[in-house]
Write a structure and sequence with these properties.
Deoxyribonuclease I, Chain A, 6-stranded mixed sheet, 5 helices, 23% strand, globular, Endo/exonuclease/phosphatase, hydrolase
Length: 274
């Protein structure tokens, strides 16, 4: 099973790029972020014709997340991150796909900081940490995939000097990431490529793509049940070089689900003697 995450930065504008990527790379599951479209504008028909069933939660002008499954219809589990019923941002979607629990997220950017947007980012992150603790201990294989808007370390950015005041690199942001991983999640790409500079985002300014001046902010985290299935991971950099491209490139993992041990059977009930 190949699972990918891709911040499309506007699904209406990037639909040709998205369809080309799906046709060429054929991920089994694709988590999308920043749809920037209301539910009614989601291209369900075009994606179905491309072979993908889909769940989505849209929002006008920003945010929005979706889960696509090749040849399958994702089974919805939840449409919001628990902990704040009044939060109407479309940032979280959770579904089951072929026995795997897939959580797709678009974590708040948090800029400018300090300020209310950064406070919201940290509060959202705390809610994620709380919810992830339950997912981690699930008997099901679980992946949390998406745009986390966090650069975990200085090794995950081309040059941190000009980004020191950005919300993505703040000590509080990185502390949240660290505490999330300390629960037991496996950062799939860094786990497989510990010494390689890998980026998933290149902004549109100052020739960042042309200079390979990137950041790694799109991540796939595997729980202990799923981590043994990891066989490959990477980034489809060619997508960022297309015309009218998103400023992100898809990140992905390949999983051999046959490596996952079957759960131990429940002990048989003993009949009480009379």
């Amino acid at each position: 099973m190949k699972i990918a995450t891709f911040n499309v930065n506007g699904i209406k504008t990037r639909l040709p790029n998205l369809l080309e990527w799906l046709q060429r790379e054929q991920p089994d599951v694709a988590c999308l972020q920043e749809l920037k479209a209301l539910d009614g504008a989601f291209p369900q028909v075009a994606l179905r014709e491309a072979g993908y069933g889909s769940l989505w939660k849209g929002q006008r002008s920003w945010n929005g997340v979706a889960i696509l499954a090749r040849g399958l219809q994702p089974v919805e589990i939840r449409r919001e991150l628990p902990g704040e019923p009044g939060d109407e941002h479309a940032r979280y979607l959770e579904a089951a796909v072929d026995g795997v629990v897939v959580a797709c997220l678009y974590l708040p950017n948090g800029n400018p900081q300090p300020g209310p947007k950064f406070d919201y980012k940290l509060a959202w992150f705390e809610r994620l940490i709380a919810h992830a603790r339950g997912l981690l201990g699930s008997e099901h294989p679980v992946v949390i995939a998406g745009d986390f808007n966090v650069v975990p370390t200085d090794f995950d950015i081309y040059n941190p000097r000009s980004w020191r005041k950005d919300a993505l690199l703040q000590p509080q942001t990185r502390d949240c990431w660290r505490r999330l991983l300390e629960q037991g999640w496996v950062d799939a790409i860094r786990h497989q490529h510990p010494g390689e500079a890998i980026f998933t985002f290149w902004d549109y300014f100052r020739q960042h793509w042309q200079r390979d001046a990137g950041l790694r902010i799109d991540h796939l985290l595997l729980n202990a049940r799923l981590a043994p299935a990891l066989v490959a991971s990477g980034v489809d950099r060619w997508v960022r070089g297309q015309d009218r491209a998103s400023d992100h490139a898809p990140a992905w993992v390949e999983l051999d689900l046959e490596r996952i041990a079957a759960p131990a059977p429940a002990p048989a009930a003993t009949r009480r003697r009379r």
